[in-house]
Amino acid sequence: MVGLLFTSCKKKDNNNSTSYKQPTVSYKLMATNTDYIMAKTTALANIHWTSGFANPDMIKFDATKDNASVEFTSTNSPQVDIMSSVATDFGGFTLPAGTYDRVSLKIRLDSDGPSPSLQLNGQFVFDSLTLPVMLQVNESVELQTEQNNVTISGDSAFIAVTTLDLSGITSGITSTMLLNAQLTNGTIVISSNSNHDLYHTILTNLGVMHHHCEFEHHHH
After folding, report:
1. Strand partners of residue 70
2. In a 3-state reduction of DSSP, which class is residue 196?
3. Which pLDDT score is estimated for 219?
């Protein structure tokens, strides 16, 4: 499994006497930097990702509130199109209003039957050569972001937007590696069963990357 899963104490807030709606938090996952330009050579060399999806299996909000550890978890979210211009939110839950310190936001991706945890489709361009590329990650992958503090207040909806830097996950891959890659029906397939060196480079990048997250605030 890429990354480490951490557990913490859970503090339950069972204050049901309030008549107003509690704030809600949900997640979005969006791809950024869809072009990876390789080290300069005598020819243009880059990967351009054009489509992709992810399968969120578990979403977790860990933090400290009033000097106590709190944890909110959501599971079984639908597949998301990470290239969509209008990203779909998922993993919603309610939580008590207040200021949360040392916030850790985690999205665990996992395969769903034949559907991989993460799939990307694109093209490898080298001078006048163009080859289709497909990445399929079948392992469980955890994307984690951290915030110093987040204030959740009022009758509001908050969306934690996590971005997946596609240029970052392919960092270290060279044009030579792709030119020497095994082709499957004319496509460079990067998976646990094909082109292992490329696959493990991407898995390593996913495990060590610091993913970015921003909170969007919406009123109910």
Report:
1. 63
2. helix
3. 58
